[in-house]
Amino acid sequence: MKATVSANFKKYAKKTIVSIAVFAVTYLFLLFFAVGVTFLFGWLGIQLFLLYPSFYTGIACLGLMATGLTVLFFLIKFVFASNKIDTSHLTEITQEEEPALFATIYYVARTVETNLPKRVFLSSDVNAAVFYNSNFWSMFLPVPKNLQIGVGLINSTTQQELIAILAHEFGHFSQRSMKVGTYVYQANQVIYNMLYRNESLDNTFQSWANATGYAAPFIAISIFIIKQIQRILKKLYTYLNLNYMALSREMEFHADEIAAHVAGSQALADSLLRINFASSALESVLAFYDQKTKENIKSENIYPEHQFVMNTFAERHQYLIENGLPKIDLTTIRKYNKSKLNLENQWASHPSDEERIHALSQLNISKDKVASDHAILLLSKDAQITKAISDKLFSTITYESTPSALSLSLFKESFTAEFRKHQFDPMFNDFYDNNEPILTDIADNNEKETDLTFEDLFSNQKMDMLYTYASAQSDKFMVEAIVEGNIDLKTFDYDGIKYNKKDAPQVLEQINHEVTTLQDQIKESNKQVYSYFLNLAIYQNRKDEFLQHYQEYANAHEKHQEQLRLHNQLCEGTQFIFVTTPFEEISDKLKALQEPVSLLRKKLTHVLEQPDLRLQFSAEALPSIQKFIDNELVYFEANEYISENLEVLFTNINEYRVIIDNTYFISKKNYLQFMIDLEKSMEILTPVK
């Protein structure tokens, strides 16, 4: 199949070829240098021993030879390395087992005009990929490729969409120009191996050190030379990768075009828009069963449950159902993302979904015949293989006793109850998902009447305001990073205007003004809501009840803010553990942590004393919490971290955050539910006109 090769593709392909050439020349220079060092050190060692034969000059001779050979080995060890993909979590299938699915795969391969995969595997997730075991010789010898298809993906696409996704994956290997990417990838792997995969070298140095103390100076010389080579390679790694990432993004557009020719632009666009949604739904199913581990309950089959959760989420967000699957369009995605900032991520291997969908719409390739049936129907015997994949996924979990399988009907009942438990009433139109109805000047709102209706207060326009505010906050964070030099770029776009890096402070000032304006608008909206419900309460003779509910919520909010300050103090105070820190500084920072850790211990002790709160802790976490409360743990001793105790500390910090968030959520929901009760009571009291 012939697909258009864009000017950008050609440009970046040329740049990557130049990158490969630069890499080859640099590598050959380093290799000749290493050979020269090996011969030089060997000659010096032999001459030294011949001039002054003794035990010590013999050691020096061997040490110099070993140093030269070590440097040489460092530069050629990648030839013997291989990257073998672990397939233990995958399930291989054959044409005899799944004839309909294989017929689809064969059809796509023939249409794309590429080779058939050597082996086909099913995974549990929402994904598809072509993979192969690679080594240095893969650049010169043909390597058979394997296909991996996620059952979660099959479960969340139509047959036409699955064809489009498979065509995209096969498209990466269908064009001769695509081989450039393979060469760049292998060159990249070579550098990565020399920079970060040095276990064999470290073991060699350790063996030398264990064998004799005389090895120390020669190890130091080897390490010094290798470090200098690595400094050169790191710069080359950055140069090569930036060009490779640019080419990779163009390769995605190219593969998308091939997929559009095979299955149509719309099929691939629809699948791209649904994949993240479907993945989130599957993760929600797995999270549900993660909480059921302590009850020794597993899934009967996660894929019918996955389908149910997708439809539940679709109903909650008012998505259309088309061909049995949620229909998500670009307008829906844009509703949540109001960002005005556009940064070109030079390290991104894929374009954004929006960029890809825009490119597909420009192609505008349609197909007369579309296979709109659910892709899961391609699997044989009523998709029995999905149960095997589901069982394999749960076989990796450790249960206290043999788990029982939850039926689909019980899952629906239990999941729906849990889902509603952690949601605010849909009448609020998600207005309070990321908005706290707290007032700083409540006295000014006492019985102030408003002409706004319930629908006005929680309209889509109000939600747009909140989404715009969230995006403005995100833009502010990113531009602050540009100002502070944490993001390296020359130009960026904001609100459709291109700016140089030096203009970032000016743009930040503009964003700060927008954030302040939106904050004022949100505060005003919260005042209007408060006045509306206060007047409803007065009309229904429930003013004192409303004020009590608000005050209980306000107290919970203030308490939660105090608890968050402790949590943030602990998180910030333990950051040094994750970076290289001098021993003396570690001791000082741990001393500074004693007070907040002691306070955390008191807070958790108080929580455990309350049976209803104690039940919110997972069975796995309770022993760790009890150990933390009962002991003054030592986290650093004899110049080493005590990993077991640190794990206990971090478990308690995380569990504390979970418990304070859950407790606050309940208080907030109680207040909001009382507001809903007032509104529904008003509907009963007000006669229909």
UniProtKB/TrEMBL annotation:
Transmembrane segments: 20-43, 55-80, 207-226
Peptidase M48 domain segment(s): 151-362
InterPro entries found in the cross-reference section: HtpX_protease (IPR050083), Peptidase_M48 (IPR001915)
GO process terms (BP): proteolysis
GO MF annotation terms: metal ion binding; metalloendopeptidase activity
Entry keyword Iron: no
Superkingdom as given in the UniProt entry: Bacteria
CDD domains for the chain: M48_Ste24p_like
Keywords, sorted A to Z: Cell membrane, Hydrolase, Membrane, Metal-binding, Metalloprotease, Protease, Transmembrane, Transmembrane helix, Zinc
Family annotation (Gene3D superfamilies): Metalloproteases ('zincins'), catalytic domain
Cofactors required: Zn(2+)
Pfam families: Peptidase_M48 (PF01435)
Protein name: Zn-dependent protease with chaperone function
